[in-house]
Amino acid sequence: MGEVAVDAAFIQAIEHRPKPVRIEAEGIPLIDLSVLNTPDSDADDLASLVSQVGDASQKWGFFQVINHGVPLEYREKIELASRKFFALPKEEKLMVGRDEMNPLGYYDTEHTKNVRDWKEVFDFAGKNPTFIPASHEPDDQEVRELNNQWPQNPPELREVCEEYAKEVQKLAFKLLELIALSLGLPKNRFNGFFEDHTTFIRVNHYPPCPSPNLALGVGRHKDGGALTILAQDDVGGLQVKRKTDGEWILVKPTPNAYIINVGDIIQVWSNDKYESVEHRVMVNSEKERFSIPFFFNPAHYTWVEPMEELINEQNPRKYKPYNWGKFFTTRKRSNFKKLDVENLQIYHFKIDN
Ligand SMILES: O=C(O)CCC(=O)C(=O)O
Ligand SMILES: [Fe+2]
Question: Which GO terms describe its biological process (predicted)?
């Protein structure tokens, strides 16, 4: 049986394994952001863009953007440098290994829903230092300072990562404003939550896998933060769970586009108008794949709750407030070690109306 060539820790339950027939996304909207970078664009063009973002966030929770204003050279440089980093011997990569104290750096044993992912990652924070709660314990008020860990090799990794993060952050704020407008809120309604943001950027490397029918690069999950801005290479493997029928849809790579998805925080802010949609990553036996998600997250002390302006008698509040930093640290715990309990999810804060 050539089938089982991977460690049992990687094997998905039968119902979560990828199917041999793959459906490609026709439906994931492709949105042109050039209006944002055209100084004399008119109000109608902006209104049309806002409604496209709103429709896509509501129907799919996912969309791709082109003409997004992030110069291609930054993306090419980080891709090249991270290829060099992942090609290093494991011992060298582990010199910047993540541990329970510092969740930033190199890591190859992440578990999603308690099954090991077929990948290795390098995480760095968008702001250095970044502050998060010292523990997941609700009564512990202590705050921990996180610092990025940079490897010696390749020497340019630090600079290209920092430059990339700076550029993508500009796009993140533009998208945040479009989403606010699409909900009928003032453009800068969410901006204040991001002053001390806890954004982190992950470089994912998915090596070829001898049993792509049994394992996943990342198991099914929803992104816990506000927004994710993902660069994927031309190999493909990201699948999104279509809201209409629950089918897994492959997101076909579009050169130089970014894939955007609304995370759990926007779901809560929008009081469920928008939904953070489940996705996962398939691996294949021939090609390695690289992807770079930028997880745009608010300050750790943010209390996440539905926007007052969106709540009324017909549309009552659907969530109790929760603390983002505690949510984040609780989640991090479960992907560091295999826990017997279910991962913390936003529905744990749901109010039964
Ligand atoms: O690699 C990808 O395409 C997506 C990765 C992802 O969903 C994640 O890291 O949260
Ligand atoms: Fe994700």
Answer: coumarin biosynthetic process; response to molecule of fungal origin
Question: Which ligand is nearest the CA of 238, by number?
Answer: 1
| Ligand showing the shortest atom-to-Cα distance for residue 292 | 1
Neighbours of ion ligand 2 (CB under 5 A): 223
Residue 19 lies in a domain: no
Best residue among 238, 260, 278 to mutate for probing ligand 1, ranked by most atoms within 8 Å of CB = 238
- 292-310: buried (b, 16+ CB within 10 Å) or exposed (e) per residue? bbbbbbbbbbbebbbbeeb
Task: Work out how many domains the chain is built from and give that number.
Answer: 1
Q: Is residue 53 part of a domain?
A: no
Low-confidence ranges of the chain (pLDDT < 50): 1-2
Which CATH number do you get for residue 83? 2.60.120.330
DSSP 8-state assignment for residue 96:
T
Assigned domain for 64 exists: no
**Assigned token pair, 26:** 């026709």
Q: Which pLDDT tens digit goes with each residue over 239-286?
A: 999 999 999 999 999 999 999 999 999 999 999 999 999 999 999 999
SS3 content of the chain, % helix, strand, coil (to 5): 30, 20, 50
Residue 293 falls inside a structural domain? yes
Which residues line ligand 1 at a C-beta cut-off of 6 Å?
202, 204, 218, 223, 230, 232, 238, 279, 281, 291, 293
Q: What is the pTM of this model?
A: 0.94
